[in-house]
């Protein structure tokens, strides 16, 4: 008799975005003809840039010719792309070897899968609030108990609050795997090198591993802020970095990311190289390599034209962030983020529940956002607004909030 993986039963009911879709749909049915504006889902809206499109076309053309046709590629990605990434890291002052880079179909799958190379007995710490995949992937494999009041037994929650600037304090006691997302989704907070150093020092002291999701690093505009955790000395011994082409070159639907597993990373009982080899083993067993066409497209983003164009797209979104932030500040709403990340994190008016505020914002301003509670109990009382969107759509949503939201 077949049975299911019953750990799935522990997942807290109702994934965030389906519930948002359900409430939005119900509102539209009750209010026919009303147009709803979206500042909600974290998805890119602007087209691929000409350089990247040309790269994708090149990838297709290579497959069209018997002389250049290729089938399966290397599990870890093309040498050219991994070398281009090594060069990018060198620009941050970080020395990596191409053998430490694993190209994948995205940062979300890598974030979900990376836990599989670690023992089930590892104690996991997550930021609260957090991007849901870090928690859910660990729940599914049985690394937690049941969910009580929004928190899973056995997980360590690192509170991100207004008081700590939404960057967590070190976990109390000993944990083994620490997920950090920086710049942060959902809070839009960004860490200084000194803040990251505290976690790197902790991880080295406790032989813990930091799993660092840097999917939004392209949104950091202050040259003094670290783009990579490897800018911190010693991180190569204790950190895995996960990254994505989704948010910087618009590949959310195209699909491409990478992870860095340094050869020098060691955990209890392993020699240098073992963790790197384990991730290679995992990928070569469960994954057949990223699309060759897509990797050719990404490579084009490393050319001078590609870099300039993709930066322009990031700047375009950040202009939205600036507009949203300015408007909310004018309304005397407490708002965070939106400076080095495409997300704004606002305190709900009068501390109201984040789903209640979702309903109010939809009813009064016809704007859809994302309730903070959907990212963990620490998100209650907050609300995420996304800077992805066309300028004119964001401008209309912002105007409607200013004119129609009753504070
Ligand atoms: C969007 C996002 C990603 C990107 O995931 P992909 O699978 O590469 O599209 C990763 N982490 C966070 C926190 C994100 O918001």
Q: Which key features would you list for this structure?
A:
about 400 residues; alpha/beta; four-stranded antiparallel β-sheet; 12 helices; 15 strands; globular; binds pyridoxal-5'-phosphate
Q: What can you see in these coordinates?
A:
The chain has 407 residues and is of the alpha/beta class. Helix content is 37%, strand content 14%. Strands 2-10-9-8-7-3-6 form a seven-stranded mixed sheet, with helices on both faces. A four-stranded antiparallel sheet has the order 11-12-15-14. Helix 6 links the parallel strand 7 and strand 8 (209-213). Helix 2 (50-63) runs antiparallel to helix 9 and helix 10 (304-330) runs parallel beside helix 12 (391-404). The radius of gyration is 21 Å and the shape is globular. The termini are far apart. Pyridoxal-5'-phosphate (PLP) binds at residues 42, 106-108, 131, 181, 185, 213, 215, 244, 246-247, 252, 257.
